[in-house]
Amino acid sequence: MTRAPWTLVEADRFDAGRADRALAYWSPDGRFALYNDYRTGQSFLVSDPGPIPDQGPPSWWARGAGPARPFSLADPAPVEGYGVFTFPYGPVSLGVAESGRFDLRTYGERILAVTPIGGFKSRRLRAGLAGLSLADAGLRIERTVGNFAAAHVAAFLAAAESAVGAEVPLEELWVRAFAQELQRIYNHLHVIARIAEAANQNVGSAQAHALAEEMVRFQGRVFGHRWLFGALLPGGPARRLGSEDRRAIPGFLTGHEQAFDRLWSLFLESRTFIDRIQATAPVPRDRAVRLGGVGPTLRASGVAWDDRLRVPHAPYTDLFLTLPQESAGDALARVLVRVQEIRASFSLLEQLLERWPSNGAVGTPDPPIAPGRGLARVEAPSGDLVYDVTVRAGRVDQVGVRTASQANFPLLAEGLRDQVFTDFHFAYESFGLVFAETDG
Amino acid sequence: MSTWLEASVRRGILTTRYPASAATADEVPATGRGPRARPGASGGAALADACPVGAIGPETLDQGRCIRCARCLPRGFDFSGPVEASTTDRAALLEPRAAPPLRTADSEAPLRPFSRSLHVFLVDVGSCNACNLEVLALANPYYDSQRLGIFFTNSPRHADVLLVVGVPTPEMAEPLRRAFEALPGPKAVVAVGACPISGGVFRGNPDLTPSLADLVPVDVFVPGCPPTPLGVLDGILRAAGRARREAVP
Question: Could you tell me if residue A387 is inside a domain?
C-alpha cells in the first residue's frame, strides 16, 4: 500500500481561508474538497467540507461538474463609463479555431473587462459515462480533449485503479508517462507556434508548427494513433513498446530537441517577437493563487507547483525533474516556462527509456478515498488535472473532473483586463486554454 | 533576418508531394486508414458486441461510424482501407464486409463549379479539438494547403466551403445555421470526422444531434476519428472535384 499523496483532514480542523491555500477540486456530491498549500507544497483532502468559502473561481467550476448550458464568468463589477459597450466575440469566427465566446467591455481600443462564455461545445460527456465499462468510458474520456488524451486517460485510469485497488504492471505506468511527456512537448510546441503566428513571425511559426507536426507523426509511429487515442486503454490497440522500438526512439528525440533549441535561439534574438509578448496579459502571483490557477500559467506567476513532484506517483518518483519557474506572470513568462518544460520532458523521456522496467513488477495504486471511490491527479500539459471516479461492480458509476482549462479561464479574464485589442491573440494563446476541456 | 533565412534554407522543403503522388507511410499512421475485414474474419454477435459504436454489422461495415479504436483487430480486421476515403455519398461509407467496392474518382462528378482557388471556413459544433488541430495542420509546412489554392478564412462571408467538426450540440445549432447562411453560393459543406457523420463515440446521446445532415445539407463525408490531415485534404479536394483516388483492392 502506498501513502496517499495528500493529507486527509476533517473540515473543522482545516483552515481553508489561510493565505496561499487554494481550492483545487470540490466533488460534485460535496463530500470531498482538495486544497493545495503553496507555502508548504502539500495537498490536503478535506472530508465533508460543508459550504466552500467564496474565494476565487466560481464554486461550481471547482466542483467538477461542468455546465450543460452556456456558462458565463461574469465580472463582479461590470465596467461602465462614457462610450463603454459590450463587444461579443464568438462563438463562430473567434479565430481560435474552437467555439466559445468572449464578451469584451470596451470603449474602442482597450479591453476593460472580459467575460469568457463557454458551454457551446458541451457534449454531455460525463452524464453518458455511468454504467460503462472502464474501457468504453475511456474511449469517451480521451475524447474530452484530443490533444490532452494521454493525461486524461492516465488520470481516469489511475483514479479507477485506486477505487478498486487494482495493481498495475510497472511497464504500464512507464508507457503512460512516456505518452504524457510526448504529448506535453507537442502541446507546448503548438502554443509557441500559435503565439508566433499571432505575432506575424511567419518563418518561426512555420518551423514551430513543423516541429509540432513531427511530434504528432512520431506519436502515430510509436502508438499507431496521431493523438494517442486508444493507446493507453485496457484492451486498446496499444503497440507496447518493444525493446526494438525503444532503441530507435532516442535518435529521433535527440534530433528533435536540437532542432527545437536552434529554433528557440532564433526566437530569442527577435526583438519584435519578445516585445509583443513581454508585459502582455500579466497575472500577478497573489491573483493567480486566489483565482485558483494551475500549471504552466501558475508557474509563470511564481508558484512552483507541479503534480509530477508535489503529488508523488510512479514513475516520476524515480526520475529527476527540474521545476521551471518564472515570476513576471506575463505572456513571455508563460512561454519561457513552456520552453523549459519542453527541455525537461525530453530529459524525462530519456530517463524513462534508460530505466524501462522489466516485465513482472507491479505498481500499487493510491489508497481509495472511500469504498469504490478513487481520486487521482496528473499534470496535464495545461496543468493540474483531477479525476474522481466511483466504480461499482466493475463499471463506472460517477465521475467528477476538474480540468486545467476550467481553472485557468478566470486567469485569462484577469490577464486581459486593460490590454489592447491587438494583444488578444497572444494573450489567449499564451494561456494554452481549450474550450473543449471546460465543457465536458 | 539572415538568420531566419538560413534556418529556412537549412530545413529544406518538408512539403508532401500529395496529391501528385500517393500518401507515404510516414504521413498516415495505422489508424489513418479505415478497417477492413480480412478473409476468414470472425463474424456473429460477439463481433458486433466488440464494436463500441455499432460500426460492424453482420454483413456491413460502416466507415462513417468507426472511431478506429482497434478492438476488432484481434478478430480478423486490419486497418487497410484507403487514405482517400471521403465520399459525396453517405451510403457509400456503409460497405459490404465481404468485398468493399472499388470506388474511382471519375465515378463522381465535380460537386460545384469551384474551378479555381478555394476558401475554407471551419465551424466547430462540439469537437474534442483533435479534428480542429488536424484541419489547422493543413497550414503547416508539411501539408501547405496554399500550394493547392486552398485558403482558410476568418469569415464565412469569404468562404466557398464550410468544414464542420464535432458532434452537433444544441447550443451550436443556431450559430451553425447562421454561418451556413452567411456563406455566399455556390457553397459546399464537408463533415470532418465520425462525430458530424454519425455522432461518433457520442452516438446515442439524446441531447446531441447524431448527424450533421439533419441540420445542414452535407456534400462530402470524411470518415476517421480524427481523419488525418491528408484525409481532410482529400475531403476538401473532393468538394472541388479535384480529389485523387488510390486503387485499393
Answer: yes
| Residue B104 scores a pLDDT above 60 | no
Both B139 and B221 in one domain: the answer is: yes
Q: Looking at residues A169-189, what average pLDDT do you find?
A: 93
Give how far A90 is from chain B: nearest CA, Å. 9
pLDDT score for A62: 61
Contact between A97 and B130 using a beta-carbon 8 Å cutoff: no
Q: Both B136 and B229 in a single domain?
A: yes
Q: What pLDDT, on the 0 to 100 scale, is given for residue A1? A: 45
Q: Is residue B21 part of a domain?
A: no
Q: Which residues of A touch B8 (CB under 8 A)?
A: 203, 207
Same domain, B86 and B130: no
| Letter string b/e over residues A45-58, b meaning 16 or more CB atoms within 10 A of that residue's CB | bbeebeebeebbbb
Average pLDDT over residues A70-98: 74
Q: Provide the percentage of residues in chain A whose pLDDT is more than 90.
A: 49
Instruction: For residue B226, list chain A residues with Cβ-Cβ distance below 8 A.
Output: 146, 226-227
Residue A167 above 90 pLDDT?
no
Q: What is the mean pLDDT of residues B14-30?
A: 89
Among B241, B202, B199, smallest CA distance to B62 is for B199
**Which among A88, A411, A98, A194 is positioned nearest to A281, based on CA atoms?**
A411
Enumerate residues 59 to 88 of chain B having a beta carbon within 8 A of any beta carbon in chain A: 67-71, 73
pLDDT band at B249 (very low <50, low <70, confident <90, very high): very low
Residue B146 contacts A where some CB pair is shorter than 8 Å: no
CATH code for position A347: 1.10.645.10
Please state, rounded to an integer, the average pLDDT across all residues of chain B. 87
pLDDT of residue A237: 45
Taking an 8 Å cut-off on Cβ atoms, the answer to whether A207 and B130 are in contact is no
Closest-approach residue (CA) in chain B for A208: B140
* Residue A231 with chain B: CB contacts under 8 Å: none
Tell me phi and psi for residue A256, to 5 degrees.
-70, -40
Min CA distance, A214 vs chain B (Å)? 9
Per-window interface: A 174-233 vs B, CB < 8 A: 190, 203-204, 206-207, 209-210, 212-213, 216-217, 220-221, 224-227, 229-230
User: Lowest-pLDDT range, A22-36, A47-61, A167-181, B162-176?
Assistant: A47-61
In the predicted model, what is the mean pLDDT of residues B168-195?
93
Q: Are A313 and A5 in contact (CB under 8 A)?
A: yes
With CA atoms as reference, the chain A residue closest to B73 would be: A237
Range of the domain at B221: 118-239
| One-character DSSP codes across chain B | -HHHHHHHHHH------TTTSPPPTTTS-GGGS-EEEPTT---HHHHHHH-TTS-B-SSEEETTT-----TTGGGTEEE-S-S---BS-GGGGEEESSS-----GGGS--SS---S-EEEEEEESS--SHHHHHHHHTTSTTT-GGGGTEEE-SSGGG-SEEEEESPPPHHHHHHHHHHHHHSPSS-EEEEESHHHHH-GGGTT-TTS-S-GGGTS---EEE-SSSPPHHHHHHHHHHHTT--------
Query: Which residue in B has a C-alpha nearest to residue A204's C-alpha?
Result: B4
Which of these ranges, A119-133, A231-245, A289-303, has the smallest mean pLDDT?
A231-245
